[in-house]
Amino acid sequence: MGRRIELPSDLAIIAQAQAGLITTAQCSELGVSLTRIARLLDSGAWSRVTRGVYDTDSTPIVTRHPDRRRRRAAFAAKLALGPDSVVVGACALAIHGVWGLPIALEPQAALPGGRRAYSRDGIHARMFDAGMTVTEVDGIMVATVDWALVQAVPEMGRYQAVAVMDHVLNRGLMTRDELDEVHDRARGRRGIATRHGFFGEVDARAESPPESEARLDCFDNGVPPDVLQVPVRDLSGVVRRGDLGWKFKDGRLLIAEIDSDEHHTMAQLAADAERHNDITAVSAVVLHFRKQAVSTPGTVSSKVRATLDTYNSGFR
Known about the structure:
Layout: H1 9-17, E1 21-23, H2 24-29, H3 34-43, E2 47-50, E3 53-55, H4 66-81, E4 86-87, H5 89-95, E5 108-110, E6 124-126, E7 134-137, E8 140-143, H6 145-152, H7 158-170, H8 176-186, H9 196-200, H10 209-220, E9 227-233, E10 239-247, E11 253-258, H11 266-282, E12 284-289, H12 291-294, H13 299-312
Parallel strand pairs: 5-6, 11-12
Antiparallel strand pairs: 1-3, 2-3, 4-5, 7-8, 9-10, 10-11
């Protein structure tokens, strides 16, 4: 076994803030030589991301938390293009904390002032959009949410684009009118021609990406929910909310609850289960769907349709 290489604690702090990444320049400033970097790479403790950028996390990327993987993509682009670069597109949305993004993001950044950079090693160097506004988040410069959406939506699939825009409105990061301005600004961009309809499907009431996906699945298959964030009074008289709701012919409610491991802690899932039991005992039929079911087209909508048909058949 080789001798363990001690590294400055400041380096670990910087790397942690950059989703595990570090640059040659940062290493040099902290007294970590090229020889030490080479030994870390040879040992497998570090890996090379691109020229001058290294990943200090030895765990496989696919096992890391989705948020950390998204942030890693953003920092990879930022560090590869240099200190003046601006993170853009979906990577900028990840830094803003927007939900619904793909887990595996293409690293994207741009240089201001009309300067060109070249894409390499899977890192996309974009042109700096004329008029683009930027802001500082977590110590790095990123496109503002509106411009990040202009750049990202033309490159996203429907479920992801709608979920992202749902979350932006739900969090109050922009208004519906401002989202309409984003749509207008995106016109003419490559890819937007097949995505205009996404903007009309956005609903600010959705509280998680799986809720957005389940809603779209039900719309696509002819069982659109009657209401979102359904108010229901439980056993103790407290008004609770269900994610998606439909009305039975006898006046009761069918509620679909979307349980998301990524967007709920175990404590939140446990609290949800108790809340759902109270709701079921009073006035509603509750269906639970986990991520795998929601991600399989037709699963939520077919179960909702079958339940509505079964319960309504006695009231015709």
